[in-house]
Design goal:
The protein is an alpha/beta fold. Helix content is about 45%, strand content about 15%. The protein has helices at about 15-30, 80-90, 100-110, 115, 120-135, 140-160, 175-185, 200-210, 215-235, 245-250, 300-310, 330-340, 375-380, 395-400, 420-430, 430-450, 450-470, and strands spanning about 1-10, 35-40, 55-65, 165-170, 190-195, 235-240, 260, 285-290, 315-320, 345-350, 365, 385-390, 410-415. The relative contact order is 0.10.
């Protein structure tokens, strides 16, 4: 069986929880052939992989959401026929979208996106949408916004897709759009594995964003919702990492019978016998933050909280461990914050192998404003380390347990609450017996339900069921 993994903005270009999960999944099935279809921002990222691809990845295809229209020259103007116009209108006006017509129109007609977006048909449809919903705005501004909203979607609709037996989309959004189109065009199967709920994450980002103003945020949010609705409708199976996420998928329009909870898993064996504290750590209480230094991880709040805690507990030392190149400006601002506050004992390590550092930590910390089911918490648990985490995603379930009575494995705080996070650092530092007991609770929790072997067996069964439904088999040896 040939599996196409469809990812957006992560693997194999950037490190992080989702990327680690994808890499681990592919390596778990060395006898399966995988193709990567990656949605990235532009051609400057092309081929710049952070991960060394496993041998069973045979192809990598890239979709650039910011690109040029290579069809604009030497192409005659394409006039939409009646069915195409109606389908495009259904898309823009958020009616019952005629996706099949749109798929075939963009795939088969060689349409120039420049000419379509600048042409009379698109403007007439946008004008109708404007008159119905946004007539208080300046139409020229609204028209240009709609062009910017639809250009990346149209790039996706024009992409020539690799053939595969199963499209495994690691998000809804543009990835889900591509998977839905492949299922329509090729008759393949399609599944979605959401780590966070894509629609909700985009809503949160847009509400905080400064590049889009006022009611235009609603236009963008609407766009992501319609792509996610398409993906939920067309998918044969939709997985989530925990029960509340599954309930959100259902709330957003996914049929309950399609949904399935498949928790994350980590390799406990990989994190056994880690090197412990060194002379450098003597007299220190080490807090380890394993993350990408990006705004969604809210490192600035972490630093602020650490400064408050450090005043009351001088033994504390903060290790910020992870890549700083995904958002270099934000990472720079975090370093400047440390310097401006005159903080000592804050270390930015950059990209690391956590096995070199995790054994030295007394606890881990995650102050994110959005998460799914963080692998970094599970990896900390595998090393007997308790966690301080904000109440996002499944952090509460990982700390307090959902189907066990092992007890608390850390301290949960509210998002961006500097005082709570600082107090949690102090409480952990000053109560070693509690810290050790929480670390043991976390270890027992991982061993009982979050091991990589559990995840591998779950997906082996899923892939086997898909193969069987198509008259295929998971062969013992992959053939070229």
């Amino acid at each position: 069986m040939r599996v196409c993994i469809v990812v957006e903005g992560c693997y194999p270009y950037m490190a992080g929880g989702v990327s680690s999960w994808v890499h681990g999944l592919i390596k778990s099935f060395p006898n399966l052939e995988f193709v990567i279809l990656a949605v990235i921002s532009n051609r400057s990222m092309s081929g710049r992989f952070t991960y060394e691809l496993p041998e069973n990845v045979t192809e990598v295809h890239e979709l650039y959401l910011e690109d040029v229209d290579w069809n604009r020259k030497g192409r005659r103007k394409h006039t939409l026929n009646k069915d195409e116009y109606r389908a495009l209108r259904s898309l823009v006006l958020n009616q019952r979208v005629e996706w099949e017509v749109l798929f075939r129109m963009f795939q088969e007609k060689g349409i120039s996106l420049d000419r379509l977006l600048m042409g009379p048909d698109f403007m007439k449809i946008v004008r109708e949408y404007y008159d119905l919903n946004y007539s208080q705005l300046v139409f020229a501004d609204f028209l240009w916004t709609m062009r910017s909203v639809y250009l990346p979607m149209f790039f996706a609709l024009k992409m020539k897709l690799p053939r595969a037996d199963l499209y495994h989309c690691v998000a809804t959004g543009y990835a889900g759009l591509l998977g839905s189109m492949a299922k329509t065009l090729y008759g393949c199967r399609m599944m979605i594995s959401e780590h966070g709920i894509y629609t909700r994450e985009r809503e949160e980002e847009l509400l905080r964003a400064e590049w889009v103003k006022g009611v235009y945020k609603n236009v963008w949010i609407e766009q992501f919702r319609k792509m996610s609705k398409l993906a939920y409708d067309r998918a044969d199976l939709v997985t989530s990492l925990y029960e509340y996420a599954r309930e959100l998928q259902i709330e957003l329009g996914c049929l309950p019978e399609k949904t399935m909870v498949t928790p994350n898993g980590v390799s406990v064996e990989r994190l056994l016998n880690l090197p412990g504290k060194t002379e450098e750590d003597e007299g220190k209480i080490n807090i380890g933050a394993v993350l990408r230094v990006t705004p969604i991880k809210d490192v600035k709040t972490m630093i602020q909280a650490f400064s408050f805690a450090k005043e009351r507990e001088p033994r504390l030392k903060l290790w910020i461990m992870g890549p700083c190149d995904e958002d270099a400006q934000y990472a720079g601002e975090c370093r400047e914050q440390v310097e401006a506050m005159g903080l000592t004992d804050v270390v930015f390590t950059g990209r690391i192998d956590i096995r070199d550092y995790l054994g030295r930590m007394d606890m881990t910390i995650l102050t994110s404003i959005s998460e799914g089911q963080p692998l970094t918490i599970l990896e900390g648990y595998a090393a007997h380390k308790p966690v301080i985490a904000t109440d996002v995603g499944n952090c509460s379930g990982l700390i307090f347990g959902e189907n066990d009575d092992y007890g608390a494995a850390g301290i949960l705080t509210h998002i961006m609450n500097v005082d709570e996070i600082a107090q949690a650092m102090i409480d952990m530092a000053r109560n070693e017996p509690m810290r050790l007991q929480m670390g043991e609770s976390g270890y027992q929790r991982v061993m009982s339900g979050y091991r990589i072997e559990h995840m591998r067996e779950t997906y082996r069964k899923i892939y086997q069921d898909f193969a069987g439904s198509m008259g295929l088999s998971l062969e013992e040896e992959r053939t070229e």
